[in-house]
Amino acid sequence: MREPEAISARSGRINAFLDELVPAADAPPATLHGAMRHLLFPGGKRLRPALAFAGCEAVGSDWQLALPAAAAVELIHTYSLVHDDLPCMDDDDERRGRPTVHKAWDEATALLAGDALQALAFEVLARETADLAPERARDALQEVARAASSRGLVGGQVDDLAFAAGAPDEVGRLESVHRRKTAALIAASITSGAHLGGASAAQIDLLAKFGEEVGVAFQIADDLLDAGDWEPCSMVRVLGEAGARNRAQSLLESALARIDDFGPEAQALRELACYAVGRPL
Ligand code: GRG
Predict the structure, then answer these.
(1) Can you give the residue ranges of every domain in the chain?
(2) Of the residues 80, 233, 235, which should be mutated to test ligand 1's pocket, given the most ligand atoms within 8 Å of the CB?
(3) For atom 24 of ligand 1, which residue has the closest CA?
(4) How would you classify residue 230: left for phi > 0, otherwise alpha for psi between -120 and 50, otherwise beta?
(5) Looking at domain 5-277, does it have CATH number 1.10.600.10?
(6) Which pLDDT score is estimated for 97?
(7) Given pLDDT bands bounded at 50, 70 and 90, which one contains residue 152?
(8) Residue 165 above 90 pLDDT?
(9) Residue in 210, 202, 268 with CA at minimum distance from that of residue 49
(10) With contact defined as beta carbons under 8 Å apart, do 150 and 184 qualify?
(11) Are 107 and 87 in contact (CB under 8 A)?
(12) What do you get for the CA distance between the two ends of the chain, in Å?
């Protein structure tokens, strides 16, 4: 599916900003900084930064105001991938067609590079928002911190690792894992960008629900790409391919309906939601 303009036209800006933020690969300790950069550049789709920009735009502000939030969520996402690939978790040798960080360096370096990426996310969000109203920066920071916390990404990952197929209420438990492991950061990408753009509480409430549904649908769509090789914690294994596809579509429809009243400013957000789920708008 063709990349939406909300990604292609804005990736240059986030890439340049991330490049400024992360110390050069030869800055001491060079091993650590090289490892931090390894997965970050050239990086992946940059979906989460695009969602942060679109969240800011949806509430009527210039998308570039969301730059600190966009960088923070991509740094958190990257740290989570570096740690997820470690032998104590998914034990992967390759990511984005390149050796994983612990393969290119070693496990200790991958662990520490992930830690440093996470710390940098919060440093950026605090430092690069100094010109904005303090409550905008505080609210954005809180959204990202919560998404990265034991109630979000980390808690979801813990329950994913411990997931036992066949236990009661499998669908409910699976969605709970997806909501925290994947959707929390997707939703926080949108809401942190919207906070920096001066969103009202009512707008944040709608955008958070939109982001959560899009995030779960995105995880289901990602699982569908595994084509027959489904993890225990996959909606495709429980509902079958057609069932999982239907579930993703109905989550997307529900999400889009929530932002009906946002008008044309939310068009990038709509396009990104459809792109994440692999469906044209
Ligand atoms: C280690 C704390 C910790 C958490 C790990 C994010 C995660 C939790 C695991 C990564 C593996 C995975 C399948 C996560 C689900 C979210 C997901 C679909 C990630 C891939 O996101 P994309 O497609 O990746 O946006 P790119 O490479 O494009 O950035």
Answers:
(1) 5-277
(2) 80
(3) 44
(4) beta
(5) yes
(6) 93
(7) very high
(8) no
(9) 268
(10) no
(11) yes
(12) 11
